[in-house]
Design goal:
This is Glycolipid-binding domain-containing protein. By secondary structure, the protein is mainly β. The chain has 1 helix and 15 strands; from the N terminus they run E-E-E-E-E-E-E-E-E-H-E-E-E-E-E-E. Strands 8-7-6-5-4-3-2-1-15-14-13-12-11-10-9 form a 15-stranded mixed beta sheet, with helices on one face. The longest helix is centred in the middle third of the chain and has 11 residues, at 105-115. The relative contact order is 0.18.
């Protein structure tokens, strides 16, 4: 069960945003990721609880940020309920999308579990509902993902397989690269892996 810590920063000006303390593991039903976020000053900033089924679909998502809350799942596309900080007002949403995304590295791993790409030059299009900080506002985004390559690196615990993905935002054409080993993000825009207590999980 990998445990560790990511640092999150603005990908444009590198302003520190949060630290994400996480643990994740495959299970009989798929994969689960839980984390708590703290501000650079150490204050509580939010949390992530994401569970996927064996096909990579989100069967349960619970996000907290700045007293806002979103609960969601893959139902008729994806469906969610967003609650304001007072807890009085809750709004429901639904979109013909494949899954959720957001600032947490969990969503990058989740997208790769959903797409199950093989190394090739071809890209696969995916529609996601992005829950954007600081108030978890939902918006639908279209991306294309391509698995550019897969390399094995020698480590003290045996070979570590690292996948390199190219992600393209289809509305702007902006591209970036994501490196993932198992269920741990090694590098991505705005994400740094600062600490890892155990090796990434190996998916069958």
């Amino acid at each position: 069960m990998p445990r560790g810590r990511y640092s999150l920063h603005d990908p444009h000006d590198h302003t520190p945003l949060a630290e994400e303390h996480f643990q994740c593991a495959p299970g009989p039903s798929g994969w689960r990721y839980v984390s708590r976020l703290t501000t650079p000053a150490g204050d509580h900033h939010g949390s992530v609880d994401l569970a996927l089924d064996e096909l990579g679909r989100p069967i349960r998502l619970e996000l907290h940020a700045a007293s806002w809350q979103v609960r969601g799942a893959a139902v008729d596309g994806v469906t969610w309920v967003r609650t304001d900080p007072t807890g009085i007002h809750a709004t429901e949403g639904n979109a013909r999308a494949h899954a959720f995304t957001g600032t947490s590295p969990a969503f990058l791993v989740a997208t790769t579990r959903l797409l199950r790409l093989t190394p090739s030059g071809s890209a696969t299009r995916v529609r996601l509902v992005a829950l954007t900080d600081p108030v978890l506002a939902p918006r639908t985004v279209d991306q294309s993902w391509a698995l550019l390559g897969r390399e094995a690196h020698a480590t003290d615990n045996g070979p570590l397989t690292v996948d390199e993905y190219q992600v393209t935002a289809l509305d702007t054409g902006e591209q970036h690269t994501v490196h993932i080993a198992g269920d741990v993000v090694l590098a991505a825009p705005g994400i740094e892996l600062e600490d890892l207590e155990s090796p990434p999980s190996v998916f069958p």
